[in-house]
Every structure is written in structure tokens, then in C-alpha cells.
Amino acid sequence: MGICHTVATRHPAMTDVATISDRCNFVPFYKASYSLVTSFLGNFHPTVMELRTNSPWVPDHLNHDGDDGLIGTFGCSEAVYQGILFKHPKVYGLFAMERYGGLEGAAQSGMVGEASGTHVFHLKRVILQFIKGWTDGGEHGKQQMDAALAGLEEWTSPCPKQIVSETLQELAAGDDPSWTELWGHADNHTKLQRMRVALYAKYAPGQRDTEGRELLGLLHQTGSVMLVEHCPKFRDVYWADGTDGEGRNWLGKLLMEVRSGADPAAFDPESRAIEQADIEECTQYHTWIEKVSVLHAFSNGESNDEIDRQHVFPDPIIEDLVAVSYTHLTLPTKRIV
């Protein structure tokens, strides 16, 4: 007796988000490498999206250059969320396509496409380190600023190193300190507001992803079930499920808020409105996460025991969902070899 490894592939019955929603009563999501079917819900999903001064939740301090109220065009909702942390237009403009010559230049820079979410997250860290160095001043501050700019080299694909570097150094050499101002970096309430700006722009009526799919329509296909961001490789207890169901899942909750059609002007962020589908209330989710834990241990070589597939996956619906959600992992099957 021995273990034969089989690669998990998308199950024919689970090839659309509406089917997952109907059969499983919840929808897990993350990047495309974990689920092509549900990855559109994630913040890294490639979506050329415009942010305007009249978009829902946009704060007054976000400036714009044109008469049409355009703040910027961004390659994913993560770019909006990270970019508008910074109040100065020249700083948050570094997260928008216009700064790199439009769609083609932004694509070449890595600000559009599958890697854009990772790039904008790294760009935020570079800018924050540069700002800290400028604020601290002195020789140590200069060293921090130099280290921040050197961090641009860590990007693994072509990126706008020169544009970012020149912009930050120009701002640092000026006499206006307003470029260092942040919009509630460590404040959870403001984090939620920034994420709302990003999500309401992403799911605006008619907004499509780079594949041409209408995103609000896809979101509505999830019905009324719970949406859960599941980050398998790191423990995000604020936006996601914490990998084990202990996280607060705020991104999933805000997506459910957008899906419900809640009026941003009337919504109370402190109310229970978006907590109506907490993780602990979904039995199907907990069954799934238990099986995912076993699958991770098996695929990572942490378990040497023979695993009976029927024991691990007694529910075929849960097995199908694991296959859809973890196309890169290995499903165990017990056979005579």
C-alpha cells in the first residue's frame, strides 16, 4: 500500500462562482494562483479602474489636475488602497498609470497585471521609509532615505525606478512638508475607509477587469453567502481569515457590503451591518478549512502517514471546493501501487 499523488484540477461542476456559492454556502478567495474562479474578488486582480472626486467615499483632500474630476487610473484595487494612504497628489500619483505614460507604460513598469498588487505594496513601503528618513533628518535620516530608494531594486520586473526616485527626491528638496502627510496609516477606521474607496471604484456599475468581465455582475453571482479572504501563506488576521478562521475577514465583509448595495452616504461603519456573516457562523467554512489544513500538511511533506481520501474528504462538495481553491497543491489518494 502507498500514496499516489494526483494534482488537483478544476472540477467541471465548480467552474463558476455562482455554482460555488450555491453548493458551498460561502466563497473563499485570494490570488489567481490559488483560484482562477474566485480571484476576481481579491485586491490584486488586474482591473484598469478610474478614481474620481465624485466616487463613493473619496475624501476631500484627494486633489485632481483636470476638469473631469479624475484623480487617477489604477491597475488594481490594491493600488488605490495603498496609494491614497498619501495625501499629496505627487505621491499618490506614483500609484496611478498616468505617471508612467498611460496603460502601455504602466504595463511595462509592472503597475498593471498580475504583479501590480505586489509592486504597489512594495512601493508603499519604499515611500514610507523615505518619509521617515526625511522626517528624522540628520545623517541617519539620509541613510534611511538612501536605503528606501535602494529598495526599488528589489522589484523583480521592469519598474519605474527613475520616476519614483526623482519624484521623492524632488519633494524632499522642496520647502513644503505636506508631501509627507498620511491619511490614517495606523488607524483601523481609516483603513476601512480607504478600502471602501478602492472597492466601490472597482465594483462601480460597468467597471470591467482586464479580461473584459463586468465585476459588479460577478460579485452579484455570489448571491448572499459569506465571502472569505483566505491567505494560505501568511497570517492576516485583519483583512483575511488568519489562515485558520481566527481572522476578522474585513475585506470579505466590505465586499459583502458593496454587494448589498449599501448607500455609502448613509452607512455607519461602526454598525453590525457588514458583520452579518461572521466566519464563526458558517459551518461549511469550518469544514473546508479543516480539510485545507490536512491538505497543506500533506502537500508540504509535513505528514508521512497514509491518508485515505474518503476519510479526509467525506463530503464531495468540500473536496470539489478544495480542488478549485488549491489548484497548485496535491490531493491525496490512497491506492495500491
User: Which word captures the global form?
Assistant: globular
Strand order of the largest sheet: 1-6
Mean pLDDT: 79
Strand-and-helix sequence, N→C? EHEEEHHHHHHHHEHHHHE
Poorly predicted runs of 5 or more residues: 1-12, 306-314, 328-337
| Largest sheet descriptor | 2 strands, antiparallel
What percent of the residues sit in helical stretches (DSSP H or I)?
40-55%
Helix and strand composition category: mainly alpha
Distance between the termini: 6 Å
Radius of gyration: 22 Å
Could you give the count of β-strands?
A: 6
Hey, roughly how much beta strand do the residues contain?
5-15%
Number of helices: 13
Write structural notes for this entry:
There is one protein chain. The protein has 13 helices and six strands. The chain has helices at residues 17-24, 77-83, 89-92, 103-109, 116-136, 138-150, 161-173, 188-202, 215-220, 250-260, 283-299, 309-312, 316-325; strands spanning 2-7, 26-29, 49-52, 70-74, 226-229, 330-335. Helix 2 packs antiparallel against helix 8 (188-202), helix 5 (116-136) runs antiparallel to helix 6 and helix 11 packs across helix 13 (316-325). By secondary structure, the chain is mainly α. The longest helix is centred in the middle third of the chain and has 21 residues, at 116-136. The strands form three sheets. Strands 1-6 form a two-stranded antiparallel ribbon.
Provide a short characterization of the protein structure.
The chain is mainly α. It has helices at residues 17-24, 77-83, 89-92, 103-109, 116-136, 138-150, 161-173, 188-202, 215-220, 250-260, 283-299, 309-312, 316-325, and strands at 2-7, 26-29, 49-52, 70-74, 226-229, 330-335.
